[in-house]
Design brief:
Blueprint (H helix, E strand, L loop, with lengths): L1 H5 L3 H41 L4 E2 L10 E3 L5 H15 L8 H11 L2 E3 L8 H7 L3 H34 L5
Parallel strand pairs: 2-3
Antiparallel strand pairs: 1-2
Helix pairs in contact: 2-3, 2-4, 5-6
């Protein structure tokens, strides 16, 4: 009834459906190939980013697993290092374009660029970038500083627990 109202035959619908299926099959194959290529690109980007040294956050170390690149590194520098790394290590593989690299970096990995804190202690700053003479002198001081920091944190935590349990109001 439907075919008669438009004055078309069964063969016309069958041919249309077959052509449509061929087009869909090709597009699905293209998507599968693109996904496989994207997976290889993602792996190469992750390998490159994991090869760069990172450091922990100074103050929120206990509460986060976020890692930071050193402060001199920026995203454009990081991407140019990736291109050099790919040319050297995997010249035949497809390189990620900058937008793919940016998407993988920000969505897949828990790493950011380091932003120096204004309130970071002087001893910690000196220990991060010491000269040879300073390194010998500050190693002992830094170890003492870190031990004191742990003790002070423990005292602070004990005071918090005591304040919660205490029924006195300030």
């Amino acid at each position: 009834m439907f075919l008669d109202s438009f004055n078309i035959t069964d063969m016309w619908i069958t041919t249309l459906f077959k052509k449509w299926m061929k087009i869909m099959k090709k597009s699905l194959q293209t998507i599968a190939i693109a996904n496989a290529r994207n997976e290889n690109i993602k792996i190469s980007v992750c390998q490159h980013i994991n090869s760069i040294p990172v450091k922990e956050s100074h103050y929120v170390r206990q509460r986060t697993s976020k890692l930071y690149f050193e402060e001199s590194l920026t995203f454009p520098k990081l991407y140019s290092l990736y291109i050099e790394w790919m040319t050297k290590n995997n010249p035949s593989d497809t390189k990620a374009i900058q937008e793919q690299y940016r998407r993988i970096f920000y969505k897949e990995l828990n790493i950011e660029f380091f932003k120096p804190k204004k309130d970071q202690s002087l001893k910690c700053e000196v220990h991060e970038k010491p000269s040879e003479l300073e390194k010998e002198i500050t190693t002992r001081d830094y170890a003492l500083h870190m031990a004191n920091k742990c003790i002070i944190r423990q005292i602070k935590d004990n005071d918090k627990v005591e304040a919660k349990q205490s029924k006195k109001n300030c």
